[in-house]
Design goal:
The chain has strands spanning 15-16, 22-27, 214-215, 218-219, 350-354, 358-363, 367-372, 406-411, 415-420, 425-429, 462-467, 471-476, 481-485, 520-524, 527-531, 537-541, 575-580, 584-589, 594-598, 631-636, 640-645, 650-654, 687-692, 696-701, 706-710. The protein is mainly β.
Length: 740
């Protein structure tokens, strides 16, 4: 079966361990993938004759994989050969129709590809709205699909009773259509004189004649106070809200009488509409009711409305270029210009991740450069040298990851993992706990010839990766979560405490049973959290400070049967980002509000004290932090927290011994009353993206400059020295990082 590589939004999910470093995570989307055309295939049509001396018993050339195209091979990219790569494992060129999903292909079902199949003949996935009639579609008029058109937006044919007003219909209330309702069974609006007694009508004899017992759809006897045949009631008065209307009918929504006792706020009769001022439920249309008012609102996602939602708090649809950073955008600088740090499609041009003592920058998904500590090979340059601690060492070389773009990148304490555009996971650096997932503890990247690293055996294609202290978790294209590395506290969620990936045969391993579709995934310290679109959040791993949010200090995931964990009580509002630190966890809500729980010994929760939250019953949901305005992104370090605000400024709180708050002092913020909201970190301009590491932080500014501050004992700030920055001087006192 073909698989579709699904890329999600950029998430800045950094963190650290209380005694060891952490990582941050950056997920990139909209990476450019070069497809292979059929013109690159030899004229033999994909098959090649070779002599028995040049082929194995499987028909694969014996030299396939040596990196040199030999006779009988269409291509050979060495270790990069793969069934999802431009050059396949058998040294044939990837082409649409060969049954393998290659670069630039969404799917490939081989001979089953067809324009009316799930995978089309051009290896793109059949989707409603593409103009091609596919499996499961009743119609597809492409851009003309609409809920009020003959072919609806979901590619079903418009029919009376489907709840959508289509061509030739005067109304459609779906299952509520009836001849005695506002919208009749034939999708014609109820009207006086049509012969059907509808809401608000005491009678309907199908003629306009008065004095024949039914005049203007009111019984002539109505109002005399005497209950007679044909009347539902008759109390002899004109009060519409006393149980009997002036039409001698029982009160109902749609009778044109407002009955507050029934909870009605309006009633426009047959004009009631879920796209109008008065809804079919007789409620005044308001933004947030989940109904789009025609001509007034462009969207309404009800509880999902908010600053960071696809639909704003004022029911205006979000769009790339509107200057508001939405949950599915990497950036939004309010223009359609690339080359200023934010691409025209709202994808970041530069993204960073940080380990405890190193930093990596990914430029346009193509060039990865790292600096700082290199002891474990985490820089990926085939040595253990440190870079960035001396003048002139930046920009560093491009890390060799083969001929592939990077879709997702995460850094743990002393290692990195990247998801490439061939859907493989490739990791390098320290490996004491098996965090590279290669079934041994050998470091990769500290010796010449070790890069690019081999793919980690996950068992299925990868989509995105996150990390905590010495573990990585990968979201696959099927939305499962697969983890590896340190597991002392149940970090991996597999019901044991033994590390995974450090011994032969352990990978691929089973999926972590998170119990939801992990649209959000974050790690820090020794715990992970996952969230789904409906706003539910679940966490597992170490819990000594209440960082899991379950009102106790019991770890989850270290014993069988503990996963899936329950939902964390975040407070009911939709969560759009999770950020995980060493002992704390924060949730960014669709409104831009922030709520945090867990360890708080240095004020990292931001509540003006040092009291933990989440380690005792009844402590969640926690209140909104006072940040001086709405936030659009979060990042948590070791014991430091930072937010990118809607006004494009950065505010940080918590521990500050290395100047990681960037305010020219080493005093913590948030551990005493009156310290919140924290001061703005002066960075010299508006900020596009924020990247928070264990003890050092970085920001991408509008225009493309990168500035870093905090701990710098191995040159991880990339400023050509070992001096910390932000502890007794301004971040602006040194030039921007020369990352390329």
């Amino acid at each position: 079966m073909s698989r579709v590589l699904s890329l999600s939004a950029v998430l800045v999910l950094p963190a650290c361990n209380e005694v060891n470093p952490l990582y941050t995570t950056t997920e990139l989307y909209s990476a450019t993938v070069a497809s292979t055309s059929t013109s690159d295939v030899s004229s033999t049509g994909g098959s090649t004759e070779t002599t028995s001396a040049g082929s194995s018993s499987t028909g694969v050339p014996v030299d396939c994989g040596d990196g040199e195209p030999d006779p009988g091979e269409q291509c050979d990219d060495g270790a990069q050969n793969g069934d999802h790569s431009a050059c396949k494992s058998d040294c044939t060129v990837q082409v649409c129709g060969d049954g393998s999903v290659g670069p630039g292909e969404d799917c490939d079902d081989a001979a089953s590809n067809a324009d009316d199949a799930a995978c089309k003949s051009d290896c793109t996935v059949q989707t409603c709205g593409d103009g091609a009639l596919g499996a499961g579609e009743a119609c597809d008029d492409g851009p003309n699909n609409a809920d009020d058109a003959a072919c609806k937006a979901d590619c079903t044919v418009q029919v009376c009773g489907d709840g959508f007003v289509g061509p030739g219909e005067g109304c459609d209330a779906g299952p509520n259509n009836a001849d005695d309702a506002l919208c009749k069974a034939n999708c014609v609006a109820q009207a006086c004189g049509d012969g059907d007694v509808g809401p608000g009508e005491g009678c309907d004899d199908g003629n306009p004649v008065d004095g024949d017992g039914c005049s203007a759809c009111v019984l002539d006897s109505c109002g005399d106070g005497v209950f007679q045949m044909g009347e539902a009631c008759d109390d002899g008065d004109a009060d519409p809200d006393d149980g009997c209307t002036p039409m001698c009918t029982l009160p109902t929504c749609g009778d044109e009488f407002v009955q507050p006792s029934l909870g009605e706020a309006c009633d426009d009769g047959i004009a009631n509409s879920d796209g109008g001022a008065c809804t079919q439920a007789c409620q005044v249309a308001v933004c947030g009711d989940g109904l789009v008012r025609v001509g007034v609102e462009t969207c309404d996602d009800a509880a999902f409305n908010g600053l960071l939602g696809a639909c704003s708090a004022t029911c205006v649809a979000a769009a790339c270029g509107d200057g508001v950073l939405q949950m599915h955008e990497g950036c939004d600088d309010g223009n359609a210009v690339s080359g200023d740090g934010c691409r025209s499609d709202c994808a970041l041009e530069v993204a960073l991740t940080q380990g405890f003592y190193h930093t990596c920058a990914l430029v346009d998904g193509d060039e990865l450069r790292c600096w700082g500590r290199g002891t474990y090979g985490q820089l990926g340059y085939g040595s253990t040298m440190h870079l960035g601690d001396q003048p002139g060492e930046l920009p560093t070389p491009v890390v060799d990851l083969g001929q592939h773009a990077v879709l997702s990148l995460a850094s743990s304490q002393n290692s990195n993992c990247a998801v490439l555009d061939d859907a493989t996971l490739r990791c390098w650096g320290g490996n004491d706990s098996g965090q590279l997932g290669i079934n041994n503890t050998a470091k990769i990247g500290d010796q010449p010839g070790e890069m690019p690293p081999d793919a980690t055996p996950l068992g299925e294609p990868a989509a995105a990766v996150v990390s905590n202290n010495l573990s990585f978790c990968t979201r696959t294209v099927s939305d499962s979560v697969r983890c590896m590395g340190l597991n002392q506290y149940g970090n991996l969620g597999l019901g044991v405490t033994s590390s995974l990936g450090d011994n032969p045969g352990e990978m691929p391993a089973g999926a972590t049973p998170v119990g939801l579709i992990p649209q959000l995934l974050a790690g820090g310290g020794n715990h992970f959290c996952a969230g789904e679109a409906a706003g539910e959040v679940r966490c597992w791993g170490r819990n000594h400070a209440g960082q899991l949010g379950y009102g106790d200090t019991e770890s989850r995931g270290d014993q069988p049967g503990e996963l899936p964990t329950p939902a964390v009580d975040v407070g009911g509002e939709v969560v759009v980002q999770l950020a995980v630190g060493s002992t704390s966890t924060c949730a960014l809500l669709v409104s831009g509000a922030v709520r945090c729980w867990g360890g708080n010994d240095l004020g990292q929760l931001g509540y003006g004290d040092t009291t933990n939250r989440g380690d005792g019953p009844g402590e969640l949901p926690t209140p909104d932090l006072d940040l001086g305005g709405p936030a659009v992104r979060l990042g948590l370090g070791l014991t430091t927290s930072c937010a990118l605000m809607a006004d494009r400024q950065v505010r940080c709180w918590g521990r500050n011994v290395y100047g990681q708050l960037g305010v020219g002092s080493t005093e913590p913020i948030g551990d005493q009353a009156g310290e919140m909201p924290p001061a703005v970190t002066p960075l010299g301009g508006d900020v596009l993206a924020l990247f928070v590491g264990p003890a050092h932080n970085c920001a991408l500014l509008v225009g493309g400059d990168v500035r870093c501050w905090g701990l710098n004992n191995y040159g991880q700030l990339g400023i050509g020295s070992l001096a910390n920055l932000g502890d007794d001087e301004a971040v602006l006192s040194v030039p921007p990082v020369l990352f390329e």
